[in-house]
Design goal:
Layout (H helix, E strand, L loop, with lengths): L1 H14 L4 H12 L10 H8 L4 E10 L3 E8 L4 E4 L2 E3 L6 H13 L5 E13 L2 E11 L8 E3 L8 H12 L4
Parallel strand pairs: 1-6
Antiparallel strand pairs: 1-2, 1-4, 2-3, 2-7, 5-6
Length: about 170
């Protein structure tokens, strides 16, 4: 049994390209992050995106007369219109993330939040993301974004499916 465990340990560390010592060092360094709820330093976050799935809360803010709200995104990952959203932080619940995105990105409070559907985006540009899509209502006018009745040509590829799903659900 001891020989088997030792062989497994050697196999595990050689297969995963970190030595046992390096693994312990990495573990100790990650434990130094005081408050992961506030987010991670960008280089650490980027490295983790290559290793583990993240959960995103995506917001579908629909106005029956105006259409679906999209915001413009232009960064190293995407260039185009997209549904507003954000990655769930450590020990944060869905409602907290959704309300934080609504306030910080759009300057609005939400009056209703309803879960619509999940989407496993395991081939995304930024890594593996599990998107949870929520229908949101507000009485306020968003400070950013634009309402669309038809899908814009320059919507980011990852959100084209979301748009089509909204149309299938006949929400707008």
């Amino acid at each position: 049994m001891v020989l088997y465990l030792r062989s497994f340990t050697i196999f595990f560390y050689s297969k995963h390209m970190l030595s046992e010592k390096e693994s312990k060092q990495l573990s100790l360094l990650l434990k130094k992050i005081d408050n992961p709820h506030e987010g991670l330093p960008q280089p650490i976050f980027d490295a983790l995106c290559d290793l583990v799935p993240f959960v995103a809360c995506e917001l579908a803010i629909v106005d029956k007369k105006k259409g679906v709200l999209l915001t413009w995104r232009e960064d190293k990952w995407w260039h185009g219109w997209h549904f507003p959203g954000g990655l769930l932080r450590f020990r944060e619940n869905f409602e907290e993330r959704i309300e934080r995105v609504a306030w910080e990105e759009l300057g609005i409070n939400l009056s209703k939040i309803k879960f619509l559907f999940p989407k496993n985006c395991n081939q995304g540009a930024r890594g593996h993301v599990v998107s949870l899509f929520f229908l949101c209502e507000t009485e306020m006018t968003p400070k950013k974004g634009k309402f669309f009745k038809k899908m814009p040509k320059n919507i980011i590829d990852a959100h084209k499916e979301f748009w089509k799903k909204i149309q299938e659900l006949k929400i707008n």
